[in-house]
Amino acid sequence: MFHRTTKFLGVSLSLIIINLAAIMERADENLLPSVYKEVSEAFNAGPSDLGYLTFIRNFVQGLASPLAGVLVINYDRPTVLTMGIFCWALSTAAVGASQQFMQAAMWRAINGFGLAIVIPALQSFIADSYKDSVRGAGFGLLSLVGTIGGIGGGVLATIMAGQEFFGMPGWRCAFILMATLSVLIGVLVFLFVVDPKKTNSITHSTGENFDRDELLEKGNGSVSSIWMESWTATKAVIKVPTFQIIVLQGIVGSLPWTAMVFFTMWFELIGFDHSSTAALLSVYAVGCAMGSFLGGLVADRMSQIYPHSGRIMCAQFSAFMGIPFSWFLLKVIPQSVNSYYTFAFTLLLMGLTISWNATAANGPMFAEVVPAKHRTMIYAFDRAFEGSFSSFAAPLVGILSEKMFGYDSKSIDPVKGSVREAFALSQGLLSMMVVPFGLCCLFYTPLYKFFRRDRENARMATLKEEEMF
């Protein structure tokens, strides 16, 4: 009883702090897009330049993500998470203090490196903390609280952006404040979070749920053995067809989400003030938060009814819904401040329906098609491929808006915005949303054939390892 209580308290406290880390991670991600307009004025940068800032962070994050899988082989996940959090906190503060565009770009790249370490470790932590039947809800809860952080970070930065504090522009203060809070969360992670593998091993003496993977990997501390284990895990992950298919859809499906960083700038160009823009984006974020959690719950239920296809159907539904909502939001609704409530209602419904994929399908399915010891690696390589390719979406939106649809940053009124430039930006956004959503829905289809086989193979591999032990 004592062991069970200790394990429960340790897991509960760890999950609380992990969710706090997810809140700060999403808040950090939303900082820059929320102050695009102010950053544009500070550095005299157009949409393509602003897109480059998002590109460089996402691209570095994608390339560096496999490092998370390597680090987790040699260190426990709380240590890895702490290193990543401190890295992103330092770079966030440095972006706020940057005086030149290239300085900001360099620190954004370092920010991507920190996120590359944190995100896969967070995902594998959640995968190991929940059973298969409720893993969608676990990922949904992580996404829900993370989105709350995104709302907080976005609203805080948007509201602070139009003010000054101690003679410093508000957007710079927002970056420094967020970095300080991130450091505090990093300290909590290092001091109090316990890796699920260790909490599982506590019950060894009672014969319950012992994590054999930890013993199998113990003693392999040399550099050569670490890289050999990393290479083995890499091969095991990349050759899984389910992984290949989800990554393929993710490369395309993440393009619209990366392009959405321009929503703040688009609403301000239409003529909405900082508070109205923050409110609209908060409504959208609330919709996405509720939708991601709802999607996880629905998919858990569907996977019990249709074990081999339920999650796939949920993912395809969510991806498809991105097409009509993107079209209605960017093409049908009049781009005027008088359309405020129409925008708000559309954004809420859009968020509720298009945010299911990661929690309903991708995260839970990844956990089922590889042995537990390779989970961090599979999430890391997913971020590597998706992040690297999707990073091109933001600069492409800027380039399309400027070169094809006539966006001119010199024509913008700092207070009233510019309806003409807002329309040009919306055309660029539409191009990077409708088609990718459709392709994403289509690319899930092969999973109906491969997911069942890959899941059975992973279960057999786990059973063989346990028998060997």
TrEMBL record:
The membrane-topology field of this record reads:
Multi-pass membrane protein
Q: Where is the signal peptide?
A: 1-21
- Family of this protein: Belongs to the major facilitator superfamily. Spinster (TC 2.A.1.49) family.
Superkingdom, natural source: Eukaryota
- The protein depicted here goes by the name Major facilitator superfamily (MFS) profile domain-containing protein
This chain's source organism reads Xanthoceras sorbifolium
The answer to keyword Iron applying to this record is no
Q: Which residues belong to any copy of the Major facilitator superfamily (MFS) profile domain? A: 14-449
Membrane-spanning parts: 50-73, 80-99, 105-127, 139-162, 174-194, 245-267, 279-300, 312-333, 339-359, 380-400, 429-451
* InterPro entries in the cross-refs: MFS, MFS_dom, MFS_spinster-like, MFS_trans_sf
Tell me where it resides: Membrane
